[in-house]
Amino acid sequence: MTPTHEIPSHPTITFTVNGEACSFIMGDGSHELPPSYTLAQTLRERLGLTGTKISCDHGACGCCTVLMDGKAVLSCMLLTVECEGKEITTIEGLGNPVTGAIDPLQQAFIDNTAFQCGFCTPGIIMSAKALLNENPSPTVEDVKEALAGNFCRCISHYHVLDAVIATVKKGGE
Amino acid sequence: MKPFAHTSAGSVEEAVQLLAKYEGKAKLNAGGTDLLGVLKDRVLPDYPEAIINIKTIPGLNTIEECEEGISIGALTTLVDIITSPLIEKYCPLLKEAAVTVAFPQIRNIATIGGNLCQDTRCWYYRYPDKIGGMIDCFRKGGKRCPAVSGENQYHALMGAKQCFAVCPSDTAIALTALGATFTAVGAESIRTLPVNEFYTPLGNVLTPGEMITAIYIPKPSPVAGQKFLKFTLRKPIDFAIVSVASIITLDQGICTGARIVLGAVAHTPVRVLKAEEFLKGKELSEEIVAEAAEFALAKAKPLSKNAYKLEIAKTLVKRAVRGDSS
Ligand SMILES: Cc1cc2nc3c(=O)[nH]c(=O)nc-3n(C[C@@H](O)[C@@H](O)[C@H](O)COP(=O)(O)OP(=O)(O)OC[C@H]3O[C@@H](n4cnc5c(N)ncnc54)[C@H](O)[C@@H]3O)c2cc1C
Ligand code: SF4
Ligand code: FES
Ligand code: FES
Fold first, then answer.
1. Other residues' Cβ atoms within 10 Å of the Cβ of residue B296
2. Closest approach of chain B CAs to the CA of A10, in angstroms?
3. What's the predicted TM-score (pTM) here?
4. What gap in Å lies between CA B81 and CA B63, rounded to an integer?
5. Least CA distance to B12: which residue of chain A?
6. pLDDT attached to residue A138
7. Which residues in chain B have Cβ-Cβ distances shorter than 8 Å to A29?
8. Domains defined for chain A, CATH in brackets
């Protein structure tokens, strides 16, 4: 994947979040976005998308996972200013925007009680979503590997595996 | 994070000119999976004035066959290395090492250049400023090393004088075994050096104005068996306690070539020539392999709390030479 054109430094930066274009003027003024802002900070504090959680803020827990151009990434380890032209999907962007119905993966988490406090859940669902987009019929081992970087303090991992596998089975029906 | 100026470079020339302009006060950002942690914790006495994004430089993220063998652009992500048919075919060892780095979200964005250049993980060095203040030490230009008489269970087994931190990069261990080189470009310089000369006791050979642009791997013998083994506690988030990379050539059961490199035992990958020499011309019986493992660790001088690493290292050497899968 070689970029086809030079991307100069932008005083304004634009990317899409859940299909909607977002623009920010970079800078340290009151209506501007500081270059030191992480994507996680921007999503939560500027866009009100608080479904994305910040826990360790050091790339070690997976709570802040979002999709960038379809791949799972850690939004706490990305500078917003470096997201120019990217397509970001957060937990709020799953499901059907017209009917408001949640994603089958989200429903499976409910059906399998795959969370307790729920703090890790958006990150886990986004990691699982990235896996299913790439591989609609993963094995249990594939799921474990895809979720290896998502930590759950409440030990919901077993139910999480059930939920993801249930979604896989349903998708195959 | 504390504020900084930010620029996205459109070319290598632009990136190194910016580095020159800031006279050591700018940092390159590739995947950011290491740099952002360092900046957030304010672990260094100097905070960069500017961050230069290099992800915007085109053409530095490809894996190709070339005259030297395989060339890998510095911005190639670890996931691209893991899924590359060329890497799989010629240097499965590098793939095995890259797979052990962290977890998918990190490997999707982390680059091989950043993996080589990442800062040490010594926990004194990385101690966050906001929890009681940054800890000064030799590596930061200070006058002492708190690890020597402190919590040194993850520190060096050999070759250290002032700083006992170990090389955190898994790909460096694999690349050293593969005899890889890298190219570093500065505003008025370009040089190519072996990866095993990259790390210095307190950092690496890059000047503040240089960046790595590519890595070259000579094609290894197709009959040689390659292996990378890593021992760690929590696989997705912990760094190697010890790792071993090996390339062993056998001819009718006799070892005709051996390369063995130890990881996380020193500030740099350690090629253990004595053990390699010892194996050559021999049949790899249990006894011979065990003796080679002793040779490999002969120079080790454990600190107060890390002697256990010695036994793990010997075991990994034996397994790697035998070609065990874990
Ligand atoms: C939870 C966690 C677990 C991890 N586990 C492992 C592990 O098991 N093994 C391992 O090896 N690593 C591990 N890492 C470290 C991980 O950050 C690196 O593996 C990663 O490859 C760094 O690449 P990057 O592109 O993100 O580097 P960046 O953070 O962008 O850069 C790191 C440093 O290198 C410099 N730099 C980057 N590119 C260049 C270049 N081309 N030329 C010159 N300088 C450059 C930057 O200025 C910076 O100082 C882990 C990290 C985390 C957060
Ligand atoms: S081992 Fe090195 S990095 Fe760690 S405290 Fe000692 S001098 Fe500093
Ligand atoms: S908050 Fe980003 S990985 Fe923990
Ligand atoms: S459900 Fe509480 S952290 Fe996972």
1. 29
2. 8
3. 0.96
4. 8
5. A6
6. 98
7. none
8. 12-93 (3.10.20.30), 104-170 (1.10.150.120)
pLDDT at position A11? 85
- CB–CB of B114/B31 below 8 Å? yes
Residue the block writes with tokens 């070259």: B216
- The CB density around residue B211, as the number of other CB atoms within 10 Å, is 23
For residue B183, the tally of other CB atoms under 10 A from its CB is 17
Write the residue in B33, B55, B237 that is nearest to A82 by C-beta. B55
Any B CB within 8 A of A74 CB: yes
Pairwise CA distance, residues B266 & B161, whole Å:
11
Distance separating alpha carbons of residues B87 and B70, to the nearest angstrom? 8
Low-confidence ranges of chain A (pLDDT < 70): 1-10, 172-173
First to last CA, chain A: 34
How far apart CA B52 and CA B290 sit, in angstroms, is: 48
Atom of ligand 3 nearest to the CA of B105: 3
- Domain range summary for chain B, segments of one domain joined by +: 224-322
Please check whether residue A80 is in contact with residue A39, taking contact to mean a CB–CB distance below 8 angstroms. Answer: yes
Do residues B140 and B151 lie in contact, with contact meaning Cβ atoms separated by under 8 Å? Answer: no
**What whole-number distance in Å separates Cα of residue A43 and Cα of residue A31?**
15
CA A92 / ligand 2 centre spacing (Å): 43
- Give the closest ligand to the alpha carbon of residue B236: 1
Identify the CATH homologous superfamily for domain B224-322.
CO dehydrogenase flavoprotein, C-terminal domain (3.30.390.50)
What is the pLDDT, as a whole number, of residue A10?
52
| Cα–Cα dist B127/B137, whole Å | 11
Strands B69-73, B199-200: pairing kind = unpaired
Beta-strand runs (E) in chain A? 12-17, 20-25, 65-68, 71-74, 87-89
Residue type, B314: K
Which helix H or strand E contains A89, and what residues bound it? strand A87-89
Question: Which among B11, B58, B106 has CB closest to A59?
Answer: B106
Dump the DSSP string for B191-258: EEEEGGGSEETTEES--TT-EEEEEEEPPPPTT-EEEEEEE-SSTTTPPPSEEEEEEEEEETTEEEEE
Q: Are B267 and B201 in contact (CB under 8 A)?
A: yes
ipTM computed for the complex: 0.95
